[in-house]
Amino acid sequence: MTNTSQVVTCKGAVCWKVGEAVKIEEIQIDPPKANEVRLKMLYSSICHTDISTIQGSAGFKFYPLALGHGGVGVVETVGDEVKNLKEGDMVIPTYIGECQECENCISGKSNLCLTYPMRLCGLMLDNTSRMSCRGQRLYHPFSCATWSEYTVIDVNYLVKVDPSMNPTHASFISCGFSTGYGAAWKEAKVESGSSVAVFGLGAVGLGAISGAKMLGATKIIGIDTNEMKREKGEAFGMTHFINPSNSDKSPSELVKELSDGMGVDYSFECSGVGPLLTESVEATKVNFERINFWWVKNHIRPTHHS
Ligand SMILES: [Zn+2]
Ligand SMILES: [Zn+2]
């Protein structure tokens, strides 16, 4: 049974202004339009982009903002023209759609769909929003907001998941985990027998470890200053753990010590800590790409015109 006329009032996290503390507010969620569904959120995850959004460094300029872009929910109401989803289906939001027909979708080289692109204007595809608070329209990061009890999303930005999947785990797939997993699988295309270093063992890093393991990497070195990540990394397939705060040596030197002084075949920087980008490249074996990076770093200087 569908009920497309009711507005739902529920709790949601709202950022009213850049840099201001997030407030839990009573918000209104409109019914879905024709190609949308309204979800009852089960779990939401936190991504660093959410923090950057609150701090104003993520590039969003629209406030008040309903936050969150990762999570898992159950379809509560379906729009009139929705065919492949029904009430009760468990789904995860994705902020890039996939039409399977546009130039990018069929290229095999990119998933940046041109028909259902990443939304950065804080609104739905028809440039309106389904969320409001105290009579004010709420914007949302990407294609929807997930830090609320209910949300509305276009069906082209949803993936149906097996309901037997643990929803607390499914929540990480919409952004963090799949970012790392896809980096190892679709971007780096890690080969069987490879050695891999992963800097930062949050959801992105654990995804990279998992992807590398799936592809047959035999040495997977995880690097994190949080000792509790040792056990987590091992559960996902990490073979060696480095806690750089236990040593005076740089993380890249420590990785080299674990790889016959040579460095690893592949390195993934998953922490977002600036200086670690250089460390992650320094941790790799010397090869053509590495030399390119070294050359760019040492020869390209900003040009000043007077
Ligand atoms: Zn994210
Ligand atoms: Zn497409």
Provide an overview of this structure.
It is a single chain. The chain is α+β, with helices and mostly antiparallel strands and 306 residues long. The protein folds into 2 domains: 8-174, Alpha-Beta Complex (Quinone Oxidoreductase, Chain A, domain 1), CATH 3.90.180; 178-298, Rossmann fold. The chain has helices spanning 48-55, 103-107, 167-170, 176-187, 203-214, 229-236, 251-257, 275-282, 288-299; strands at 8-15, 23-29, 36-45, 65-66, 70-78, 90-93, 131-133, 136-137, 150-154, 158-160, 195-199, 219-223, 240-242, 266-269. Helix 4 runs parallel beside helix 5. The relative contact order is 0.12. The model has no long low-confidence stretch (mean pLDDT 91). The structure holds zinc ion (2 copies). One zinc ion (ZN) binds at residues 47, 49, 69-70, 175-176. Residues 203-285 form the Alcohol dehydrogenase-like C-terminal domain. Residues 34-162 form the Alcohol dehydrogenase-like N-terminal domain. Homodimer. Keywords: Metal-binding, Zinc.
Short structural summary:
Residues 34-162 form the Alcohol dehydrogenase-like N-terminal domain. The protein is α+β, with helices and mostly antiparallel strands and 306 residues long.
**Do you know the CATH architecture of the largest domain?**
Alpha-Beta Complex
Taking the alpha carbons of the first and last residues, their distance comes to: 69 Å
Mean pLDDT: 91
Largest beta-sheet details: 5 strands, antiparallel
Order of the strands making up the biggest sheet? 4-1-2-7-8
- CATH fold-level assignment of the largest domain: Quinone Oxidoreductase, Chain A, domain 1
**Going by CATH, what is the homologous superfamily of the largest domain?**
Medium-chain alcohol dehydrogenases, catalytic domain
**Please, how many helices?**
9
